[in-house]
Amino acid sequence: MLEKTTRINYLYDFYQSLLTPKQQSYMSLYYLDDFSLGEIADEYGVSRQAVYDNIKRTEAMLEEYEEKLCLFDKFQKRNKLLNGITEALKTDSPSKQALLEAVAELEKLD
Amino acid sequence: MLEKTTRINYLYDFYQSLLTPKQQSYMSLYYLDDFSLGEIADEYGVSRQAVYDNIKRTEAMLEEYEEKLCLFDKFQKRNKLLNGITEALKTDSPSKQALLEAVAELEKLD
């Protein structure tokens, strides 16, 4: 059984445009619409094993893209910095210096 | 003659990890080290035309990646927002509201 993880959901979100239409369909049915492997197999008239293999390969591709482009990793780092800035701005007298440093960190992420 | 543009330099920067080692070599010699097509051809013992065709194809691939992932486009937008935040923070009393809006824009870019 494949593990339906949040990580794969995110990776799919970032890299789906690099996948083939068939890979996109299987992934989207499995991860977004929560179909089972058997239901996807029925839908496409292929074996459950074929669907499993395809999704498994696609997941490996997504991890390879992440290794090369680090979009999910950068997204998480960026998010953390942006949350920090938002929190700081909500306080009475946020430190400008700290905010400028957070902005500099954000610039370095690109 | 290929035009050595800043845009291609940026696209190469963002997507080079998705290229083959040979594509990376040609692109890096041509765009970063400013070799001529003839010099690269000599270096690799291939025709000038072969180098030209390879670089031309690679440039098209970079544009396709940009169409799919928009990393350069998002980088530019992010940069503009970050510069705006930096400028605002350098003024005497930056508007918290404007800063929070810029941060929200940054969050939307991911």
From TrEMBL, chains A, B:
<dbReference type="InterPro" id="IPR036388">
    <property type="entry name" value="WH-like_DNA-bd_sf"/>
</dbReference>
<dbReference type="InterPro" id="IPR007394">
    <property type="entry name" value="UPF0122"/>
</dbReference>
<dbReference type="GO" id="GO:0003677">
    <property type="term" value="F:DNA binding"/>
</dbReference>
<dbReference type="Pfam" id="PF04297">
    <property type="entry name" value="UPF0122"/>
</dbReference>
<comment type="similarity">
    <text>Belongs to the UPF0122 family.</text>
</comment>
<dbReference type="InterPro" id="IPR054831">
    <property type="entry name" value="UPF0122_fam_protein"/>
</dbReference>
<comment type="function">
    <text>Might take part in the signal recognition particle (SRP) pathway. This is inferred from the conservation of its genetic proximity to ftsY/ffh. May be a regulatory protein.</text>
</comment>
<dbReference type="InterPro" id="IPR013324">
    <property type="entry name" value="RNA_pol_sigma_r3/r4-like"/>
</dbReference>
<protein>
    <recommendedName>
        <fullName>UPF0122 protein EKG37_02680</fullName>
    </recommendedName>
</protein>
<keyword id="KW-0238">DNA-binding</keyword>
